[in-house]
Specification:
Structural class: alpha/beta
Distance between the termini: 15 Å
Largest sheet: 5 strands, mixed
Order of helices and strands: HEHHEHEHHEEHHHH
CATH architecture: 3-Layer(aba) Sandwich
Helix content: 40-55%
Mean pLDDT: 91
CATH class: Alpha Beta
Shape: globular
Oligomer: single chain
Number of helices: 10
Number of strands: 5
Low-confidence stretches: 191-201
Radius of gyration: 16 Å
Length: 201
């Protein structure tokens, strides 16, 4: 199987959708290769496109505050997006763009094997659970094929609608509890459980 560095090289030179023609930098993702928690957002914004790193703008600062509130640091978690290049003018990614990037997120999940995946926003939620609505399932936790999923509003939502900040903060607090539960359950995963987990993607 490919390594993360090899995957990053492929993403940075990917020509598979029109976003490759307008990007400054592709944004593969970052974090330890054995991260227990993977955050998956929608796509890079202005600052991310300029720096080639995920969540480095205002939403990223809020995410770091949320992590600090439950005793985690940014360098302990893995952060990526559904699409790896910025959609022009921060528009929503198109279904064809999400499809073109799908193989990269699948590979990241298979390589890192996180205990917990945190979906940030509706596009990330829909990648895994297309029939769900973020307004109905935010703050909910579910277990599927050996992994826990926690569904959150995107941190940027609090920047546009300050009234949502409290909701996001309350939902985020569940991550610490979910991680502890995941550690207990998957301290010694069986080989078959891992295989089944990877077949999901």
């Amino acid at each position: 199987m490919t390594t993360l560095e090899e995957l990053y090289r492929r993403i940075r030179t990917c020509p598979d959708c029109p976003l490759s023609e307008t990007r400054t930098h592709a944004v593969p993702g970052e974090g330890p290769p054995d991260a227990e928690v993977m955050f998956i957002g929608e796509g890079p914004g202005y600052h991310e496109d300029r720096q080639g790193r995920p969540f480095v703008g205002p939403a990223g600062k809020f995410l770091e505050e949320l992590l600090e509130g439950i005793g985690l640091r940014r360098d302990q978690v893995y952060i990526t997006n559904v699409v790896k290049c910025r959609p022009p003018n921060n528009r929503d990614p198109l279904p064809s763009e999400i499809a073109a990037c799908r193989k990269y997120l699948e590979a990241q999940i298979a390589l890192i094997r996180p205990r917990v995946i945190v979906t940030l926003g509706r596009h990330s939620l829909a990648w895994f659970f297309p029939k769900d609505s973020i307004s109905k399932v935010h703050g909910q936790v579910r277990r599927k094929d050996g992994m826990y999923f926690l569904h959150l509003y995107h941190p940027a939502a609090a920047l546009h609608q300050p009234a949502m900040r409290e909701t996001i903060e309350e939902d985020f607090k569940k991550l610490g509890q979910v991680l502890e539960e995941a550690r207990r359950e998957s301290a010694s995963p069986q080989p078959m459980e891992r295989a089944e987990q990877m077949r999901l993607f």
